[in-house]
Amino acid sequence: MEDFSDSCGFKEIAHTADLSLLVSGSTLEELFVHAARGMYYEMGITANENPEKAISLALQEQDQESLLVSFLSELLYLAEKRLIARDFHLEIDGLRLTGSLFMIPVLKMQTEIKAVTYNNLRIRHYDRKYQTQLVFDI
Amino acid sequence: MVDLRDLRKITDFEWEIGRGFMQGMHVPVRILGTQEIIRESLKDNSLQQAANTACLPGLHQYVCVMPDVHQGYGFPIGGVAASDYHNGVISPGGIGYDINCGIRLLASEIPLKTAKPVMQELVNLLFQNCPVGVGKQGVVGLSSRDFSQICTQGSRWALKSGYASPADLEATEDGGCIQGADPDALSRRAVERGTVQLGSLGSGNHFIEIDVVDEIFDQQAAQKMGLNQGCICMQIHSGSRGFGHQVCSDYVKDFQTVVHKYQIQIPDRELVCAPVGSPEGQRYLAAMRCAANYAFCNRQMLAHQARQVFEQVFEKITHKNHLWLVYDLAHNIGKIEDHIIDGRQTRVCVHRKGATRAFGPGSADIPLKYARVGQPVLIPGSMGTASWVMVGTETAMCKSFGSCSHGAGRLLSRSAARKMARGEDLLVDLREQGITVKAGSIAGLAEEAPMAYKDVDLVIESVVGARLAKKVARLRPVAVIKG
Lengths: 138, 483
Hints:
The complex is a heterodimer.
Chain A: E1 10-13, E2 19-25, H1 28-43, E3 45-47, E4 53-60, H2 64-80, E5 83-93, E6 96-109, E7 115-116, E8 124-126, E9 129-137
Antiparallel strand pairs in A: 1-2, 2-9, 3-6, 4-6, 5-6, 7-9, 8-9
Helix pairs in contact in A: 1-2
Chain B: E1 7-11, E2 14-17, E3 29-32, H1 35-41, H2 46-53, E4 63-73, E5 75-84, E6 89-90, E7 102-111, H3 112-115, H4 119-129, H5 144-153, H6 155-160, H7 166-170, H8 188-195, E8 207-216, H9 219-225, E9 231-238, H10 241-261, E10 274-275, H11 279-314, E11 324-330, E12 332-341, E13 344-353, E14 355-357, E15 376-379, E16 387-392, H12 394-399, E17 403-405, H13 414-420, H14 423-432, E18 436-439, H15 442-447, H16 456-465, E19 469-482
Parallel strand pairs in B: 3-4, 18-19
Antiparallel strand pairs in B: 1-2, 2-3, 4-5, 5-13, 6-10, 7-9, 7-11, 8-9, 8-19, 12-13, 14-17, 15-16, 16-19
């Protein structure tokens, strides 16, 4: 497994038409946050520094991959409403995610991500690391 | 990964990957293209994705791969699969997130030399009046009643509301309205996202382009379409916006459990599906049709705005300032169609993922004025390169379930394109070629650089070689508006 521990936890993988990210984290929560930050990075978002509001999140799905897709889809929905999360406080208990997001207003967004796909999506856990490869439709 | 040795050559323009390539394939994969196109397609996962698609149950004949194929998610882009209406499945991911992303071509009788002095003004006004860019909201506020009517009526709502003419609807695939849409199949979030974005272009590869009719290859068909050599026309490329993205996301997620219910084995979770006739399949079909109708109406609203601007700019110069619709078609869609398969009329659900309908002469469901020449097929090139107007053929009806390529097809990833081209340099190059560009994001422009795409002329050579469509006219870009 590739080690991202010293980096931002995500890196872009070549994809002809869409966007693919390899994401890593030492915990499932960290994997989710790194995936979110990677997605924001690829969207080329410039945001205002001031926190605007806290949003609480509660998601439950049938597997970890669906939980990740739902979490990122929620962030895409909020980004369309011109809000991105600056800080994440997440807790994943089995297949349930709860937490709060501190949202700040988006000033500029360069790339639209249409959706988070399930394309060959699998969260792997070994050597005390979590890793996954995501494909986004853009 | 698929290797050249896995392909069997049938003709110079047809290749096949047999069912034995991987376990689970129910039908072979048929690729339409020259050897050069085949070599390009082996550079990414597109043909593996086509083989994965061939694992869906109830498919007829083969998974068809268009010459502009490239890697997508689940299905390849440029993939066509026809599943049996009674024993097959429908896959939301095989239709895509931008449901009824499509293109429309509008034509005029204004010569390019007449238009040139006002081109910059035209481009500026189009940019101002047609909302372009990431997450842009639409041009009209919609009540929930309006939204519901758009879902069920598509462009007919635009006609009723004064944003379309009967001729616009006549020249739109399915008359701009697919029957069987049901807003009750939509999530609250899908409705919310759709209500605010009608009449907006979006970003990425969506565009408005002014072209000149550069060369005509079929005078009779060009005449039917009103295409005049040397005159300008307009292409609009957009889809169902956040509404369609939400519909697809909702159902790809729901179908993750539905595949287990129906014990369907698939090699990739993005290929989740439900039997077409099942309650889940029918519900998705009803929701997908809402998004498809919304997209027809969205392009109609964009065309209405663009037409107003166009006619206003040119009324100072000529009284022949009308912009008429040649055709509007979908290239991400699932359609219930009847095709002759093994000599028998068979009802199928045709998934066209990055593929255009290309019905031949005499087919049902094409406008009366095109009945003898075939349905117009619109194949836009990459930014700054030619686009093609073609007509569908009887061969396409036999070989590809009446389908054809939808564009040039990407070669390079967006990040590779950004590394190879700077938006500012591209802007200069395009200007030197006499192309006016107005873009919401200059950096984003680099992602759509011509070098990131296949040579559209090579794609057309394959389309013609495989006899999926016949050339009518080549269009050369003169102005581009992008998000």
